[in-house]
Amino acid sequence: MASSTSASTASTDASNDISSPLFAAVYDYVVPDRLLFAPHRRYLTADLDGRVLDVGAGTGTNFPYVAATDESVEFHAIEPDPHMRRQAETRAAETDCAVDLRDARAESMPYPDDAFDAVLASLVFCTIHDPDVALDEVARVLAPGGEFRFVEHVRNDGWRATGQNVLNPLWKRLAGGCQLNRDTIERFVSNDAFAVETIERLDAGIFPATPMVRGTMRRRR
Fold this sequence. Notes:
- The chain has seven helices and seven strands; from the N terminus they run ααβαβαββαβααββ.
- It is an alpha/beta fold.
- The chain has one domain: 3-Layer(aba) Sandwich (Rossmann fold), CATH 3.40.50.150.
- Strands 3-2-1-4-5-7-6 form a seven-stranded mixed beta sheet.
- Strand 4, helix 5 and strand 5 (142-153) form a beta-alpha-beta unit.
- The longest helix has 17 residues, at 158-174.
- The two termini are 31 Å apart.
Protein backbone atom coordinates (compact mmCIF):
# COMPACT_ATOMS: atom_id res chain seq x y z
CA MET A 1 0.00 0.00 0.00
CA ALA A 2 1.43 3.40 -0.92
CA SER A 3 2.15 5.68 2.00
CA SER A 4 -0.26 8.56 2.52
CA THR A 5 -1.70 10.31 5.56
CA SER A 6 -4.15 13.13 6.02
CA ALA A 7 -5.48 14.87 9.11
CA SER A 8 -8.58 16.93 9.69
CA THR A 9 -10.32 18.52 12.63
CA ALA A 10 -13.56 16.71 13.24
CA SER A 11 -15.85 18.77 15.47
CA THR A 12 -15.89 21.06 18.46
CA ASP A 13 -15.90 18.08 20.85
CA ALA A 14 -12.88 16.54 19.14
CA SER A 15 -9.51 16.10 20.70
CA ASN A 16 -8.12 19.42 21.89
CA ASP A 17 -8.41 18.38 25.57
CA ILE A 18 -6.87 14.92 25.09
CA SER A 19 -3.12 15.13 25.47
CA SER A 20 -0.82 12.65 27.20
CA PRO A 21 2.73 13.30 25.97
CA LEU A 22 4.46 11.10 28.54
CA PHE A 23 2.17 8.12 27.99
CA ALA A 24 2.50 8.52 24.22
CA ALA A 25 6.28 8.49 24.55
CA VAL A 26 6.37 5.22 26.51
CA TYR A 27 3.35 3.46 24.98
CA ASP A 28 5.21 1.20 22.57
CA TYR A 29 7.44 0.02 25.43
CA VAL A 30 4.61 -0.51 27.91
CA VAL A 31 2.48 -2.34 25.31
CA PRO A 32 5.13 -4.42 23.48
CA ASP A 33 3.76 -5.50 20.13
CA ARG A 34 6.25 -8.13 19.04
CA LEU A 35 6.50 -9.82 22.44
CA LEU A 36 2.86 -9.77 23.42
CA PHE A 37 0.23 -8.42 21.05
CA ALA A 38 1.33 -9.34 17.52
CA PRO A 39 -0.96 -12.44 17.29
CA HIS A 40 -3.94 -10.39 18.38
CA ARG A 41 -3.22 -7.59 15.91
CA ARG A 42 -3.02 -10.23 13.18
CA TYR A 43 -6.42 -11.44 14.36
CA LEU A 44 -7.82 -7.92 14.04
CA THR A 45 -6.46 -7.36 10.55
CA ALA A 46 -6.78 -10.80 8.92
CA ASP A 47 -8.65 -10.95 5.58
CA LEU A 48 -9.84 -7.36 5.66
CA ASP A 49 -11.70 -6.07 2.65
CA GLY A 50 -13.43 -2.86 1.61
CA ARG A 51 -13.48 0.23 3.83
CA VAL A 52 -11.94 -0.26 7.29
CA LEU A 53 -11.80 2.07 10.32
CA ASP A 54 -9.32 1.81 13.20
CA VAL A 55 -10.90 3.48 16.24
CA GLY A 56 -8.32 5.06 18.53
CA ALA A 57 -5.28 4.16 16.44
CA GLY A 58 -2.84 5.23 19.15
CA THR A 59 0.73 5.14 17.85
CA GLY A 60 -0.37 3.21 14.76
CA THR A 61 0.54 -0.27 15.96
CA ASN A 62 -2.09 -1.82 13.69
CA PHE A 63 -0.77 -0.02 10.62
CA PRO A 64 1.98 -2.49 9.59
CA TYR A 65 -0.52 -5.35 9.72
CA VAL A 66 -3.03 -3.47 7.61
CA ALA A 67 -0.29 -2.56 5.14
CA ALA A 68 0.34 -6.27 4.64
CA THR A 69 -3.29 -6.95 3.68
CA ASP A 70 -4.88 -6.81 0.26
CA GLU A 71 -4.37 -3.46 -1.50
CA SER A 72 -8.11 -3.16 -2.07
CA VAL A 73 -8.54 -2.12 1.59
CA GLU A 74 -9.41 1.55 2.02
CA PHE A 75 -8.03 2.28 5.46
CA HIS A 76 -9.16 5.05 7.82
CA ALA A 77 -8.21 5.78 11.43
CA ILE A 78 -9.00 8.25 14.19
CA GLU A 79 -6.80 9.29 17.11
CA PRO A 80 -7.59 12.30 19.36
CA ASP A 81 -4.25 12.59 21.18
CA PRO A 82 -1.88 14.73 19.08
CA HIS A 83 1.22 13.06 20.52
CA MET A 84 -0.06 9.59 19.66
CA ARG A 85 -1.21 10.80 16.27
CA ARG A 86 2.22 12.17 15.31
CA GLN A 87 3.75 8.79 16.07
CA ALA A 88 1.03 7.10 14.04
CA GLU A 89 1.78 9.35 11.08
CA THR A 90 5.46 8.41 11.31
CA ARG A 91 4.62 4.71 11.50
CA ALA A 92 2.32 4.98 8.48
CA ALA A 93 5.18 6.46 6.45
CA GLU A 94 7.72 3.92 7.70
CA THR A 95 5.50 0.92 6.98
CA ASP A 96 4.08 2.13 3.65
CA CYS A 97 0.55 2.16 5.03
CA ALA A 98 -1.96 4.32 3.17
CA VAL A 99 -4.28 5.67 5.84
CA ASP A 100 -6.64 8.61 6.17
CA LEU A 101 -5.75 9.50 9.77
CA ARG A 102 -8.05 12.03 11.44
CA ASP A 103 -8.16 13.99 14.67
CA ALA A 104 -11.47 12.80 16.16
CA ARG A 105 -13.03 11.10 19.15
CA ALA A 106 -14.83 7.79 19.03
CA GLU A 107 -17.88 9.48 20.54
CA SER A 108 -18.25 11.75 17.50
CA MET A 109 -16.88 10.22 14.32
CA PRO A 110 -16.66 12.38 11.18
CA TYR A 111 -18.18 9.76 8.87
CA PRO A 112 -21.63 9.14 7.38
CA ASP A 113 -23.89 6.26 8.39
CA ASP A 114 -23.00 2.76 7.09
CA ALA A 115 -19.59 3.98 5.88
CA PHE A 116 -17.39 0.98 6.76
CA ASP A 117 -17.22 -2.75 6.15
CA ALA A 118 -15.15 -3.35 9.29
CA VAL A 119 -14.28 -1.41 12.44
CA LEU A 120 -11.26 -2.31 14.58
CA ALA A 121 -10.71 -1.47 18.26
CA SER A 122 -7.56 -2.44 20.13
CA LEU A 123 -7.00 -1.43 23.75
CA VAL A 124 -9.10 1.69 23.31
CA PHE A 125 -12.48 1.23 25.04
CA CYS A 126 -10.65 1.33 28.37
CA THR A 127 -9.80 4.97 27.64
CA ILE A 128 -12.76 6.42 25.73
CA HIS A 129 -14.60 8.99 27.87
CA ASP A 130 -18.10 7.72 27.06
CA PRO A 131 -17.84 4.12 25.83
CA ASP A 132 -21.60 3.68 25.40
CA VAL A 133 -21.84 6.62 23.02
CA ALA A 134 -18.71 5.40 21.22
CA LEU A 135 -20.19 1.94 20.73
CA ASP A 136 -23.34 3.48 19.28
CA GLU A 137 -21.10 5.43 16.92
CA VAL A 138 -19.37 2.21 15.85
CA ALA A 139 -22.78 0.76 15.05
CA ARG A 140 -23.76 3.89 13.14
CA VAL A 141 -20.71 4.02 10.85
CA LEU A 142 -20.59 0.24 10.34
CA ALA A 143 -22.59 -1.06 7.39
CA PRO A 144 -25.26 -3.70 8.12
CA GLY A 145 -23.50 -7.07 8.10
CA GLY A 146 -20.14 -5.42 8.77
CA GLU A 147 -17.66 -6.68 11.38
CA PHE A 148 -16.62 -5.09 14.64
CA ARG A 149 -13.35 -6.70 15.75
CA PHE A 150 -11.78 -5.92 19.11
CA VAL A 151 -9.02 -6.74 21.57
CA GLU A 152 -9.56 -5.14 24.98
CA HIS A 153 -8.49 -5.55 28.60
CA VAL A 154 -11.42 -5.77 31.01
CA ARG A 155 -12.38 -5.99 34.66
CA ASN A 156 -11.01 -9.10 36.38
CA ASP A 157 -12.52 -11.36 39.04
CA GLY A 158 -12.06 -11.81 42.79
CA TRP A 159 -9.10 -10.20 44.50
CA ARG A 160 -7.72 -9.00 41.16
CA ALA A 161 -10.86 -6.92 40.61
CA THR A 162 -10.42 -5.43 44.08
CA GLY A 163 -6.81 -4.61 43.22
CA GLN A 164 -7.91 -2.95 40.01
CA ASN A 165 -10.41 -0.79 41.89
CA VAL A 166 -7.70 0.33 44.30
CA LEU A 167 -5.15 1.06 41.58
CA ASN A 168 -7.53 2.60 39.06
CA PRO A 169 -7.36 6.29 40.16
CA LEU A 170 -3.55 6.37 39.93
CA TRP A 171 -3.45 4.17 36.82
CA LYS A 172 -5.89 6.46 35.04
CA ARG A 173 -3.67 9.48 35.71
CA LEU A 174 -0.48 7.78 34.56
CA ALA A 175 -1.88 5.87 31.57
CA GLY A 176 -3.58 8.56 29.55
CA GLY A 177 -7.05 7.99 30.99
CA CYS A 178 -6.99 4.18 30.72
CA GLN A 179 -9.31 2.50 33.24
CA LEU A 180 -8.67 -0.96 34.62
CA ASN A 181 -12.13 -1.97 35.81
CA ARG A 182 -14.55 -1.48 32.92
CA ASP A 183 -17.03 -4.22 32.08
CA THR A 184 -16.37 -3.71 28.38
CA ILE A 185 -17.52 -7.07 27.06
CA GLU A 186 -20.82 -6.90 28.93
CA ARG A 187 -21.30 -3.48 27.33
CA PHE A 188 -20.56 -4.88 23.88
CA VAL A 189 -22.81 -7.93 24.00
CA SER A 190 -25.75 -6.03 25.48
CA ASN A 191 -25.88 -3.58 22.57
CA ASP A 192 -28.79 -4.62 20.35
CA ALA A 193 -27.09 -3.34 17.20
CA PHE A 194 -24.64 -6.28 17.22
CA ALA A 195 -24.76 -10.06 16.96
CA VAL A 196 -21.89 -11.88 18.67
CA GLU A 197 -19.82 -14.18 16.48
CA THR A 198 -16.94 -15.06 18.79
CA ILE A 199 -15.49 -13.89 22.10
CA GLU A 200 -12.48 -15.46 23.81
CA ARG A 201 -10.55 -14.72 26.98
CA LEU A 202 -6.79 -14.61 26.43
CA ASP A 203 -3.76 -15.61 28.45
CA ALA A 204 -2.09 -12.33 27.57
CA GLY A 205 -1.25 -9.12 29.35
CA ILE A 206 0.18 -8.35 32.76
CA PHE A 207 -1.80 -7.55 35.90
CA PRO A 208 -3.42 -5.14 36.57
CA ALA A 209 -4.40 -4.76 32.88
CA THR A 210 -5.83 -8.27 32.63
CA PRO A 211 -7.64 -10.25 31.45
CA MET A 212 -7.52 -9.58 27.72
CA VAL A 213 -10.53 -10.46 25.60
CA ARG A 214 -10.83 -10.49 21.84
CA GLY A 215 -13.75 -11.12 19.56
CA THR A 216 -15.86 -10.31 16.55
CA MET A 217 -19.40 -9.00 16.43
CA ARG A 218 -21.46 -8.27 13.36
CA ARG A 219 -23.75 -5.30 12.80
CA ARG A 220 -27.31 -6.57 12.58
CA ARG A 221 -29.07 -6.03 9.26
